[in-house]
Design a protein that fits this description.
Length: 99
């Protein structure tokens, strides 16, 4: 995901960092979101400490926990990391007012 697209996502969430936010590892969608966001090496997320980055990822996963299953499936069915990353960005941008 390019840094501009990620910056928009971060702005959408208001850059809220929740202390103690956890990642639902058993949830395949949360695992993919975690993978996508952990791979960020530039932009705001890439500059965060490991602790803040983990908190942000937990916040993102919490925010999207109630995303409709069809949209989650769309992201999960991406053919590779890059495709899943693109699909995740697309789903977020389609519904940015909702999130």
């Amino acid at each position: 995901m390019n840094s501009l697209r990620f910056a928009v996502i971060v702005a959408t969430f208001g850059f809220v960092l929740l202390p103690g936010a956890t990642i639902a590892v058993a949830d395949p969608f949360a695992s993919v979101v975690t993978e996508i966001l952990q791979a960020q090496t530039d932009g705001p997320l890439g500059r965060m400490s490991a602790q803040k980055k983990a908190a942000m990822i937990g916040c993102v996963n919490k925010t999207f926990a109630d995303m409709p299953n069809g949209k989650k499936r769309y992201v999960l069915e991406g053919t590779d990391h890059e495709d899943r990353e693109h699909r995740f960005g697309k789903v977020v941008m389609e519904n940015r007012a909702e999130w």
